[in-house]
Protein 1
Amino acid sequence: MAASDSTTGRGRPVGTLKRPPVFRGQPYSAIVAFLVALVVFRLVWVDGLANEKQANTWLLYSVLVIGFYFVFGVSGQFAFSQAAFAGLGAYTSQWASKNHSFWLGLAAALASSAVISMLFALLVKRAAHFYFAIATLGVSEILILVFEKWKSLNGGLGGEVTNIRDISIFGRALDSYGEQFAFLLVLLGIVMTLGAWLERSPFVRENIANRDHEVVSKTLGIPSLQLRVTSFVLGSVLAGLTGACWGALNGFIETLTWGVELGLGVFLMLILGGIGSRWGAIVGAWFYTYIVDFLDKAEKEFPSLIGGRQIVYGGVLVIVMIALPDGIVGIWGRIRRPKAGAARQASTPNWLVTLLGLKRASRPEPLAAAETEASDDTLTDPTSAGTAPSAPSAADPTSARASTAGDGPALVADTIAVSFGGVKAVAGVSLTLHQNEILGLIGPNGSGKSTFLNAVNGVVPATGSLSINGQPVRLGNSAGVRKAGLLRTYQTPQTFLHLSCIENVLLSTADRRYTGIAAAWFLRPLMLKHEKARWARAEAALERVGLLDKAERSAAGLSYGQQRLLEVARVIAAEPTIILLDEPSAGLNAAETQILARHLRSLRDEGISLLVVDHKIDFISDLCERVAVLELGTLVAEGDPVTIWDDERVINAYLGVADDDDPVGMDDASATVATAATPRPASPGSTGSEA
Amino acid sequence: MTAALGSAVSTIAAVCEFTGGKRTFISLLFSGLSIGSIAALAALGFLLMQKATGVISFAQGDMITLGAYIAIWWMRDQDVYWLLAYPLTLVMMFVIGIGLERVAYAPLKGRSIHVVVIATLGAALVIRAIIALWQDTTPTSLYSPLKGRDPVKIGGAAIPPVKIAVFVVTLIVVFIMIMVFNKTQFGRQVRAIASDRPTARLHGVAATKMSMIAFGLSTALAGLAGILIGPTQSVDLTLGFGAMLAGFSAAILGGFGSLGGVVIGGFMIGLSEQIVGGYCLREYKSAFPYILMLIVIAVRPQGLFSRGAAHGRL
């Protein structure tokens, strides 16, 4: 990092950055330009009934795949059910519009797909990945069976329904392909605009966080299940919409259309076009429409090629996954070198690629390895620039905290126990963190420190009881823990690599009003107002840790040490009353460690209580008023940092034999002994990045 | 609206007919057991592969179809006697499984299991296409020495011997599998890999050999399922897909855990379709396995017979 870089970052007052991403860009003009281009395309290139019909099919597929983009691309849910929900829309719509207008049918289609997809998503809420995929296959089979067999729904011809009512506008039926195209154009425009509004709201950012790291998102207060269900329902409703229009435009439906072939086709379209954007959905739909047509023609021409279609699908799926991980849209992005600020589409490979292990996300080397990074400009000294009273987070949250924090202890953890299989990682630890205190928690590797934090934090199953600021909180309820004002950092930084730094921080802001889908669509002014306030708070937190100049860079571009700082900023922006820090000094040099200590003290001075797990004994001794020592899952000593070292059990825990009470030697010895100690059980904190 | 509600109510009132007495019940029971056997065989294939390689293969369904077609090819096109054709089919399937491992799994080793799953999806489509090119798409039938034999009388019900054979063969295979898993070096090595892959390799388990054998065996199991299911219905390209879904459901019921659990899961799948579906909502009977699966995912995602942590969250 260049020195000039950091001075501009530090020198820039908070609130002068460009507008938040939610306010930026020209999405509406892009949509209008695209629609105009579509009209030109239709008028200039498309002629003949077959081609006209095909253009309409393309637009229908586009709506279907934009829906799937929200399910799979944004929310990361492996669903094979998109086609079946389109079928649901088609069958309900034709049924409801039999004696009424198309619009009643459309309403019925939207309602039925919303209700059934929501019930399904809630039913299988505990299933993830393959289980979810298999469940969506199951629900597709059930739905298709119902389409085929339910005579009151399908008219009794085994799922073949003919003479479906046309779409009519002011009594005028859309019976030519040209009129239908115009209708679909408007429909696509509406869907694109609704999508753009979602992109320009916290909704997509929170979904991405939830997709990449569900456990961590929950501890930041993001309503994980609600987001997943909302995205799934949104996608399924768009499928229902497609189905309703499909039936009305073609006048005919059969069950075969909504089977697994289209379900897989939807996958293919999105992956082919580019999983990272709505435009990818449209491009993928175009390819699919015309490839299907081409293959149909080829099969008619050469009947022996029947089945060749699947070879093409299968081959394309695998080749695209390996050679074109960002799809066709990604090619364009590669030609036009991404801007540094554009975190979502820039240097970081898309999440699916990372998940599939095709390419590693560019998680940087640890700070120790990159020595050039290490100097005190990575950490802003809180005594000089950091806690300027102009920063909104420094002033008002403190007063807010003062009112919430009572007189009693900040955190009381009572007989917390965690076991992995037969191993008791934490065996009944009781620990109290007082208000305005920095409590150190030390112990050799494998003594259960991180597991204890994970238990308190609610990310591993544990027994015992917990109360935060006098309020009892159920163990395992990580959202409740966050609500009570407790936040934490992780041993390995758990940042969201597909988001920019400031988006990472925005995730944790306490004000979660108007972050939902309804606010994004119907209450935009309010949403934008709150988003501005959140943005200012996040900027202040970033400035405090000295990362303001990187606010809009992708978090993947940060060094290891900077990732830690980003986590700290995220915690600060959450306006916590209690912070748990898991080895905050790991990978920091002596100077950086001192600055870290000053930061932590200044947080304490603002009324926050801190629990610090660390291995650097002098850092802990210097920082903490009180130190607790864990060994093999039990608390062996508790006291002030000077006397604790006289305790024989502590010396035994660290050194095995009580020979050496030289504190400098102790520090060195702890490092060596600690590495030789028992292996620590896996904790979400350390394995989250691989999961 | 009211008409629809009314018809729904009257449908519900009329859905269940417990008629036919003992004879119907026994005949449904055997249908259920034979369908459950196929689900169990498919699920055993998943389980074996998943334990040894961590992969759930979407190609398993089309492998079942392929098994049936290879058997048809031996017996119909090559005029090979069934006693010879069956083992030949299984051997071919074993070799094909090893080929699949080489093509769709080995080159992707070291990558996340998700990419392998998508590769198996691609492989499934390719296999289906190859069958279509090789044997064309018109439905055909698979010969069985038991086809057309007189039904066996059990408790007054006439049970086609094909169905009994499916059940008996499955029980034998399951018994052999349990023996192999628990008593042989191969079984111990697979279990070691399943519980901790890197450590197992450090202890000298040849993971490459293991994954080849596992792919081979599970594909041979798919072939066996194809041979058994083929004579009970008409054979076309979609033959294996339903069996694969039933196998998925069985594996989820069993929790991808013990062999026994998965087999019981398979029988529950078959019985829910035949016995529940035999009396209630007959038209929708093929939906019951999925409904059962969804209920299990909702209530007990770790499976009915699996102790310990939930496998539902991967």
Protein 2
Amino acid sequence: MRSSARFPYARVLVPALFLAGCPAPSPTMGALKVTVVQGEAGDPAQAATVRLVGKPIAASTNVGGVADLTNLVPGPYTVRVGLIGFCQTDRDVVVTAGVVTDVFIWLCSDIVAPTNPVADRLLALLDLRIETATGSECENDRLVVGKRTAAVGGNALALAGCRGAAWILSPDQAPAFSNVAADFPWTAGAGDSYAPTLPAQRLRVPVTIWISDRDMDAAARTALRAKLTDALLPKANDLFRENLSGIQLVADEAAEALPEIIDVVTVVDPVTGDHPFAQIGSNCDFVASIRATPVIYKPERFNLYYLNNILDGSAKGYNCVAQGAPNIIFIDADGADYFTLPHELGHGLGLTLPDWGHSEQVPGFWNDASGALSIMGRGATAATYFSVGQVVRMQVEPSSWLNVSVGGSSIRSRQTTAPLVTPCGCPESESTDDCPKLRTDIVRTGTQVASAPFPMACYVKAPPCLSVLPGSSTSFDAKFYTSPAATTTGYGEASVVSFTPLMKATLQSESPGQATAEVSVAGPGTGEVRMYGGGAFASVVIRVGSACP
Amino acid sequence: MNAPRPGRLLAMTLLLAGCDPAPVLPVLPPARILRWMQCQECRSEKDSVVAMGAGAVLDLRTLLLDGPPPVLVSLVANEIQKPMQAPNATYVPPAPQIDLLLEDFRSNYRVRASMALGAIGGDSARHALCAGKAMNFQRQEVVKAIASALVLTGGTCP
């Protein structure tokens, strides 16, 4: 039952309407009272447009967020609510003669915080209808984040039924993947069990390799660059191909040079000319500062930092997926194996479970030629995962197949209807109380969420602009929208997005759900401060000595 | 203490009997040591080796001085040199790069063997490290690892 404390206006609004003598509907006609709220606290959404789809009937919400639609012919309708800055939301209702039907709609903000774009937030729903010897059977639905199976349950996608389809609900957060169907012709054949012939076109994973000058002189960096170009990158590509992942790291033939895919640069601090320890450090504790420093980080790509003696020599490479940044990877320049790079990319593409993805049975990454040298390591005995590439291909090429290994046996599914595109990146939901929490809440009846896939902020909201006088400071608050199951501590982390001695941002306080940061500036100019929370952040433009627009 | 493994036992028996031990059976270090040598993101692998105590020193000494077992070097070499299957061509990394990757492989074994020896400590571990130091390895990460491990053992080399 919904708490009245969550809707403080409801106690007032309903009696007020009653006392105001609102007209009762005629005995033969019906009416809708549409209440629209928005934001974390469910504040009334004034001036939202409420209309009935396919009917010339519309109204605007009042200051209480309510719109009344009266004199309606009994029957089914679709209520559509729109308000600038929020996702358009539909709700199916049935109007009954002589009755005022309440409709409650909680609008989602259409502001989706930018996140790591590649695989960490790639949210896919699998409505599996699997092929069998006698036809097909309905398989439990799955919610997948990256390649992590976040939930498996009965018929969670009740509206979709059992169609054998995959939906990527956050394509906006995976823009770096090629999203052109023509890039994936090998999936088009009937009975195609994903990439059997391995043609040249593949899922293109953009990678920037940053070669650190830490413990490496110029000659060593040159040697490393040659090793990468001539051996490691082609070998990584070959390993991906060998294992049928359908992933292309970099073109390994001269005729298909793809410089936009691979980019090797040397990491130096533009001020000191040395390794930017303050920004990169040497481990995943530095995720926030790396992301806040554009000269050493490209958010739309995988960022591989090659440096020596990482984690005191106890790792050949590691991926910062546990810190919410699967596109940040450290690799030991000298100690890495030839397959360390694809190994870490495997984690970055979502191979994180079980045993941190160290499985030989992950489709697309299983090197059965030499178990001891398996790309993803040894130890696991079963997996229920598939590659992001498979889902992406299924999304862009409806005739492609999805292979999923479940408990050691393989099932196959294919998309049989047009993909569902959810507007604004918000979840499609019948429920009214699952917004703006984390999107796992879109899982409904019959599904148990084993754990929140990302126990961190879903998105961060902060003022878009602050005006600060030179030589002074100011504070701002940020709020973090997150899953109820989140247990993350350390919600906030403020960082200045550039190397500048004139601006400083520090975190003043933090608590679950919100944090406060202070920005101080020493001189004129314009800058940007980011407030991080888990995998998301909000940007705050700092205007020094001038007003915000 | 670990029991001698069959392969090593057989080789030693043949050797002592004055026989040609060929064909040489592949002799691998214990699985716990092998996992420490091969882990990508290591967690308890090194601790597991250190827990073996003095029983691990002989194998670690061999790995430090001789590098990884030839059978593994051969396996890695084959994997690295295998022509890559580009659609219209095959590609083999240049020989210097193959050599470099193999040397990376060998050096990594030496570095990790040194780290484990340093953590185990004791005279036998220190002697193994000193033997490694005397070999004057070219790779600086190996030299540094040996030096750091010697500090851990609290001793110096004669």
